[in-house]
Amino acid sequence: MFSPSKNGSAIRKCICNARYLSKRYNFLSKLRQSHRCNVQARHCASVSALQRVESYKPGECIHGFTVEKIVNVPELYLSAVKLSHDATGAQYLHVAREDSNNVFSVAFRTTPMDSTGVSHILEHSALCGSQKYPCRDPFFKMLNRSLSTFMNAFTGSDYTVYPFSTQNSTDFSNLMSVYLDATFFPKLQEQDFRQEGWRLENEDNQDPTSPIIFKGVVYNEMKGAMASADSLFATHCQNKLFPSHTYSHNSGGDPSCIPDLTWQQLKQFHASHYHPSNARFYTYGNRPLEESLQQIDTQVLRRFGKIQPDTVVPDEARWTEPREAEVYCTLDPMAADPTKQTTVNVSYLLGRITDPFESFTASVLGTLLVSGPTSPFYKALLEANIGSDYSPVVGYDNSTKEASFSVGLQGIATEDVEKVKDIIQQTFQKVAVEGFDDKRIEAILHKIELSQKHQTTNFGLGLLMALLSCWNHEADPTDHLKINDMVTSFKHCLENNPKWLEEKVEEYFLKNQHRLTLVMKPKENFQQELDDQEAQKIVCLTENLSTNDRQTIFEDGLKLAEEQSKEDDPSCLPTLAISDIDRDIIRTVVDLQTLNNVSVQHCIQPTNGVVYFRAVASLHTLPDELLTYVPLFSSVITQMGAGDMSFHEFSQQEDLKTGGLGVKTYLCQHPESIHKLEKGITLSSYCLDNNTEEMFRLWQEIFLRPKLDDVDRFTTLVRMNASDLAMSLSNMGHSFAMSAAQSNITPVGHFSEIMSGMMQVKFLKSVAEMQDMSPVLQKLQQVSRHVLSTENMRCALNASPLFMDTASLHLERYLSQLPGEGAAHTACMQDIQFNPTMQKLHYELPFPVNYVSRAIEGVPYTHEDFASLRILARLMSSKFLHREIREKGGAYGGGASMGTSGAFTFYSYRDPNSEKTIKAFSDSIQWAVDANYSQQDIDEAKLSVFSAVDSPTAPSSKGMRLFSSHISDEIYQRHRQQLLAVTQDDMVKVAKKYLLKGDKMDGTALLGPANEFTKGDEQWTIKKEE
Ligand SMILES: [Zn+2]
Hints:
Elements: H1 4-7, H2 10-15, H3 25-34, H4 49-54, E1 61-62, E2 65-73, E3 78-85, E4 91-96, E5 102-109, H5 118-125, H6 138-143, E6 148-151, E7 154-155, E8 159-166, H7 169-184, H8 190-196, E9 199-202, E10 212-215, H9 217-227, H10 229-241, H11 263-273, E11 279-285, H12 289-299, E12 323-330, E13 342-352, H13 356-370, H14 376-382, E14 389-390, E15 395-397, E16 402-412, H15 417-434, H16 438-453, H17 459-471, H18 483-496, H19 500-510, E17 515-523, H20 526-542, H21 547-565, E18 591-595, E19 598-604, E20 610-618, H22 630-636, H23 647-657, E21 662-669, E22 676-688, H24 692-704, H25 711-731, H26 733-742, H27 747-756, H28 758-768, H29 774-787, E23 793-799, H30 804-817, E24 830-831, E25 839-844, E26 851-857, H31 866-888, E27 893-898, E28 903-909, H32 915-930, H33 935-949, H34 960-965, H35 969-981, H36 984-996, E29 1002-1008, H37 1012-1015, E30 1020-1023
Parallel strand pairs: 4-11, 12-17, 19-23, 25-29, 25-30
Antiparallel strand pairs: 1-2, 2-3, 3-4, 5-8, 5-11, 6-8, 7-8, 9-10, 13-16, 13-17, 14-16, 15-16, 18-19, 20-22, 20-23, 21-22, 22-24, 26-28, 26-29, 27-28
The structure holds zinc ion (ZN).
Zinc ion binds at residues 1-2, 120, 124, 218, 221.
């Protein structure tokens, strides 16, 4: 439900597969931090998915489809079949792989010719009810009737895609039925358009005298997205580099254009774009292809003929000279240096993405140019310390029919724009002469090999997103699967012509006239101007309204609210039953040993020849005042160099031998007590079996001879970190609000606020503002003395059966070299003396939307009431908060959760309201106590919780629940039984005991613009940026 390519979507970052040399450098680095690896469950069918597919013959007809070709790709353990539907021309790609996490998607080429957000609003409205499933919001309802591992929809610049994944076969056909009906036969009623798109309505829909304003889910979503400077920049960049056709518009919708869209136009757009002749179907996994083909043919395709969809994107006419443009954004009060908020970027139009080798080459070249400390642009731009980080669009981008490459800087002084432009030009000139170090090319090819072997649980989805852009423009997607062929050709080209890449640099960049220099500057009253524009638009639309018209607007508002409050009958929708949930967990065998007096967990798994290493180093000896430095320590310690290696050399070795060395902060509450916790850092890395010794050698250098003395390097890293964190505020505002709300409730909440909440944002900002950062480096040296030893360390290894012993020997040798005596205990749980307090905090920030959260003290994981609170949170989210906060309130999202931090937490995301939302939180508690819901509602909440509980885990992550959360299989199995056993009475009891009574610790936090209600209430503490 997000516009991925234009809005800097978090979602796309999560599912992008690193194997595809990520489209943008940013994706790769963020992927490393945020990627949660899971397990790939494998089931052995009697005839394997691959064998079945390999028996097909080109020309063979199956359920109205004709097989075009079958392609075997051994390096990815898959076979692909390409088919087309005879009667409609619909295209189909099936990827067979021994993976039970099956994927389905249907995608349409959507090429809007304006910025009304028509494709995005259609994406939302299609999910509001369909012919066969006429209930309201079947999509959200299915989230609770399924065990899906993924359900979503995205609008890109030129496609709209509806994917899901699930491990359950009945679930697969249920979901497919709902998706097919939603996309091909949606009701698209006027009220859906008004709810999801835009409408005029009284600010208070109960009060006809309150001002008339714009409302609508997409309207607010895009207001939020456009408030983020990086989304805004990315949108302008694409619009201006491709000025002649669909890419010149904002497919997500520009809030100033969205009100130009009519309901009729929306329906027309559906008829011309969501047609089988303009559709691409994709299935992935071990489920038989025939079943999917039959269902799609019967349910949809038989009801259509063929049309000629007018959706082809023409090539952009090439410029004869470069262009420049200047745009504005809002001033960022969180910026480390307020005088440095300008962004400059140069983008180049490249060749078509449909040519597999050409796009492979361009993406490798893009990575060589900008990725990692050894790349020429990193050295020339980032190390020059002119700006805070790369510009928001950087590297090779294949999300448009013709690819582009961008490079630039953000966080610079306006007078440095020319300097940056000169550096960019000079760097290309230098590279065109000197070329690239062979070791760097080798490192990239190593990364490709490693990522092919590294298994993730969302492989099928990652593959879809990687193939969709080129397939969308008539490329044969199977050509883009043959990675090994491309690597081989790449090496051949280099052998035949050692200057080949230099010539490419000449062709793509130095001689390329189709290049855009885009400058974005902050403007004092930028947000005010947008608000004025919006107000003016409202005046235009309302000034000539008669009293009658105004009455109609008021009544329409009431009508919609009434519709939204109506009890709705979801019984038309298919559902799984509680009996479809497995009673028992699949247990993981781990073996605990002591190596060099350090506790090591061994977990033998089919890891495809990759070794996974993790360690936790406890911080319980660290003085409290150093705690706030730990996140900075974690993020720089592997990036400063170590031993005799400069940071360039270290990074080179990392890329040549491993998938990267990661250090993160770690906080874990004891499963049995809110007042016991473990604070620490985690180390993690993986590598091909034969590089294990080198991987540990790199860790050893960091432990024995860390380099925490290079102030220039440190300054660069601090600025990048600070700008990253400040940027994440508008994308992840709800998690900052949740952290702030919990900060005075539980010890884990308290420490996580210090290490990753608003307190950390402010701390990092203050460091970034320092003229001389050397005192901070001294603090990090103190941290390193506490952390970099075996004293408080425990480790885990996941490796294949044949290699585990060798891996363990390497680990033992590594541990024997480290300082410290070892601890040989499993965890360093501390009893925390903590005085919780009630507080209400408002962080005043210049966002057009709010992020609201409330947290109430709950119970630890093993407590008998934990399962009831967890199901209750889910029930309140789907049956009450979703309706109040999203449907009626117009927020992008909202809900409640009971996590392992010990607090029951409410939240809202990109929310136009704050006071109303806080009231909705309270009302939901009364609603829970009144228990006006059915057994089906309870079952749905359980299914929804179990789709999270049973999400697949990759071999690399098996055993990690025990290692990282101290939750053994026994505890986990007990929790499962408790979840299954939760009754309505249990939930009423916990709602009263923990939420209603008001004797538990309670905190509220709001991130958002100044408002009257917190100002007028002395219970609120208001924090402003000075
Ligand atoms: Zn959306």
